[in-house]
Amino acid sequence: MPGITELPENIWSRIAAGEVVERPASAVKELVENALDAGAKRIRVSLKDGGRLSIIVEDDGTGIAFEDLPLALTYHATSKISGLDDLEHISTLGYRGEALASLVAVADVEIRSRQEGTDSGGLIRTHDGKVIQHISANCPKGTRVQVDNLFSGLPARRKFLKSASGELRRAAVYLREYAVCNPGIAFTLEHDGRNIFAADGAGDRKRVLLKLWPEGAEIQNVNISAGHLVLECWFQSRAGMSRGEVIAFVNGRAVNDPVIKSAVATGARELSGNWALFFTLEPSLVDVNIHPAKSEVRFRYPNEIYESVRKAVNSLGSPMPLPEIINTPQRVSNISAPKNSGFRFNDNFTARTKSPTRPRPEPEREIFIDDIEPQEEQKPEITYMGQTTGGYLVYDSNNGLVLIDPHAAHERINYERISSSVRRAENVQKLLMPVLLHPTLALEAHEHEQALRESGFEFGNTARGVELRAVPSIGTTEFEPEALLRASLAALRNNHDGDAKTVLWRTWATMACKASVKLTTELSPQEAVILWRELHECEQPFVCPHGRPTMIEIKNSDLLRRFGRE
């Protein structure tokens, strides 16, 4: 076994850099955070080839002194903390002194900077991790950082980068989110000389959110105090979305934190849509020094996160009044619902929700049972008897009593409706009103354009931007076209080696399952009878797509035996 040796600088510096600079977007994030810490009011980002060839970040902040430029490129050199006590009260976005040094280790870097009140600035250039030039230079107040040939000396890392459009999209997400968090700062993003995004810095957060979120749905706002923190919450309801977008900031820092995500997932279960959460609390009550990329934090009072989100949800969502329902027995022969009536609660019926005293969360499994042999069985005439307090539907048939789980049954109906539509050759639904896509969404759609087009999505370019003109016809109108596109993109984004068509088909089926009527929904007799009919027209009516039974039958012979009448 070889003895212990000290790694040379050119190796350990690149190992350390990999924790901070993962891709062009993370380099953009670090440089933009430096600009924000410098008090910039204007930040301009320019990319070439998605940032793989060149990244330029310019700001009008305080700048760097000429004599400090070499020091700024070394590890653990920073102006933001100076002692151990400062770690307990970090109020800046950066503090580790690693970003510029990490970039120097994996790319060619040029910095031009001039401090306010000085006549001239300085220029410093690096190549292969070494400073090759440091001279005085005329430049405007602020700092301009140019990063060229990212990972050129690390082919193993470079081959894992996405396409130019994919890397551009990731950088655009960072910039848009920081524009939302800092509405008083002007942001600009350019790619290969083309304008991608701009925020004017007028201080209107809602106006910036309108650039980030889809048009046409109201954006609500509420401010909440809970213990030691204040939450500014923005919400946009998006019906039909299985999962909305959640962006979160803690003291101005963009975080991808499991505590916050869990709080939103738990507290906002019934409010689907987009969320922007801005938490403000004393720096001493949050530990930001737990991740090299500073994307996670640890709260001293995590329960207050849950409490603030719960209060926000209660303020944004108000319970619906409960109408009076009379469940009288109803025979199939008395219902004039046509065959293949397209059972959809969102379209044809008014779904009524019972008191939340008996909610039961539905499992979120996505393993589908599609290889069960269909069973032949005569459809008996039935009488709908009513709904139990547990939510199950009770029917009297010629053979005995049948209990149906309405959620599982509706899942099976929706699943087979989509399956039937996808199998048809003509599975494209043209949109009467094309949907104008926001730039970030358009960039991601372009990244996966081939897979989307092969699955039935169609796009077009106009003077206003990219339009969505057609979507796959999946046999249901419950999902908005843009929501269907976003869910499909999310599936493709997380699909590393699977077949794109299979991944999309399973995603749409999952959406249908999650949109199915809940066990806590009270049905009218007409709805219950049509649910029975639609379920028995399915190829596999006895199990939901996840493998759970849709119905349980208690035969007349079992009833006779249990009551001692055999």
How would you characterize this protein structure?
- With about 575 residues, the chain is of the alpha+beta class.
- It is elongated.
- About 30% of the residues lie in helices and about 25% in strands.
- The strands form 6 sheets. Strands 5-4-3-6-2-1-7-8 form an 8-stranded mixed beta sheet, covered by helices on one side.
- The N and C termini lie far apart (about 80 Å).
List keywords for this structure.
566 residues; alpha+beta; eight-stranded mixed sheet; five-stranded mixed sheet; 25 strands; 31% helix; elongated
Helix percent reads 25-40%
Oligomer: single chain
Sketch the major β-sheet. 8 strands, mixed
Mean pLDDT: 77
Stretches where pLDDT is under 50 for at least 5 consecutive residues are: 318-377
Beta-strand content bin: 15-25%
Q: What gross morphology would you assign?
A: elongated
Strand-pairing-aware structural class: alpha+beta
Radius of gyration computed on alpha carbons: 29 Å
| Number of contiguous helices | 17
Strand order of the largest sheet: 5-4-3-6-2-1-7-8
How many extended strands? Answer: 25
Q: Whole-Å distance between the termini?
A: 81 Å
